[in-house]
Amino acid sequence: MRRRDLLALISIAAALRPAAAGAWAAEEKKKKSGGVSYVPIDTLTGTTTRGGGARGVLSVECGLDIPDQKLRDRAQISMPRLRSAYVQVVMTYAAGLPAGAEPNADFIAMSLQRQTDLVLGRPGARVLVGAIMAN
């Protein structure tokens, strides 16, 4: 093989590499579980006070179950607004949590559900709370 042909082949391979890397990154971002109607939400955190006055973190893991395709598309588009509303709920709740107290999962889930219905404009999306941890 001539050197010119080899250089041309290397340059073509180098040009195709970023496109392949982008495809692999998009494939890696796929949701891991939950089915077709499940929309995952990144972990929500808020600062709280632990016993003894030290700072702590309240973490809430949740997702949305949205059977209606149109509402699911609207939720995907509204994800920045949903996350903002969720973070505000968790931060406000964590700030008012007494030192050493356990978080009220029912109240947090109800507040997140209310924000979901407000942001999406109608009911139909169900908030699924996976874990609530205060440390």
Protein traits:
single chain; 135 residues; alpha+beta; three-stranded antiparallel β-sheet; 4 helices; 3 strands
Please outline what is shown here.
This protein has 135 residues and is an alpha+beta fold.
Give structural notes.
The chain is an alpha+beta fold. Helices cover 51% and strands 24% of the residues. The protein contains 4 helices and 3 strands, in the order H-E-E-H-H-H-E. A 3-stranded antiparallel β-sheet has the order 1-2-3. A hairpin with a 5-residue loop joins strand 1 and strand 2. Helix 3 packs antiparallel against helix 4. It is elongated, with a radius of gyration of 22 Å. The model has no long low-confidence stretch (mean pLDDT 85).
Describe the oligomeric state of these chains in a short phrase: single chain
Approximately what portion of the residues adopt beta-strand conformation?
Answer: 15-25%
Q: Structural class, please? A: alpha+beta
Q: Strand order, biggest sheet?
A: 1-2-3
Radius of gyration: 22 Å
Outline the fold blueprint.
Elements: H1 3-28, E1 38-49, E2 55-65, H2 69-77, H3 79-96, H4 105-120, E3 126-134
Antiparallel strand pairs: 1-2, 2-3
